Amino acid sequence: MSLVFDSHFAPHYGEAVDIAPNVKRITVNNPSPFTFHGTNSYLIGKDTLALIDPGPIDDAHQAALMRAIAGRRVSHIFVSHTHRDHSPLATVMKEELGAVVVAEGPHRPARALHTGEVNLLDASGDTEFVPDIAVPDDALIEGDGWALRAIHTPGHTANHVVFALEGTDILFSADHVMAWATSIVAPPDGSMSDYMASLDRLLHRHDCVYFPGHGGPVTKPKTFVRGLKAHRKMRERAILERVKAGDRTIPDMVRVIYRETDPRLHGAAALSVLAHIEDLVERGRVQTNGNPAIDGIYWV
């Protein structure tokens, strides 16, 4: 199944864009190869609001959020995961608004660090974040005229969660599923086996549109999620082929598998290959000389 990405997106920095009844999107002006045009925050409700993913510490974005809130009460702030482009402003906005912060939990890796391993992603994690409510899987948080169901979707991070707007066909998919690119799954923060299981979980749902953490909506989610699964399986096959062809390090594999990818993303690609190899080792498809690592040597 082919995977077709959609890179058409107008961020409208500083503006609140109506995307559904009583749902507004405000995009942070923090574009990068990893954030696309920027991080999306969402406001839900009419009189009393919910805020999803306030974003990074950014004065202009905070001011844009406050303009969109327009003096109304914000009862809850929902955080999908603790990367620094999504969660740090939650603490500031909590103090400003008197809201309750809801998330799966604090930042943590998907697995323990191996002996001598350094977490290359430490700088991207908001390790100071602590929610007021650690929301259980499938829990329903109700507000004034809205309700959001938390669906745990580990993979991109261990604490990643998406939120379904009850009574609608809308899912706020954060960084788990995005229309413009695949999600980065990078150990030790992320886990490929968790990510694939989380995709399967979404396939059992019947949402009709995803509003992601970056870029525009996913309008045919089941088809797209199946495409994401097929894409990951294709990457897995490519890695196995490179191992059989004689490649013994991740950089060797990346140079071939990702030869048409922006070189600025090769570091992230290497971590994605590592995630696939960890999953292959767990399933007994590949053996490694010690724990899998960016500079490890592999054989089948």
UniProtKB/TrEMBL annotation:
The keyword Hydrolase applies. Keywords: Hydrolase. Residues 38-214 form the Metallo-beta-lactamase domain. GO terms for molecular function: hydrolase activity. PANTHER family: ENDORIBONUCLEASE LACTB2. This is MBL fold metallo-hydrolase.
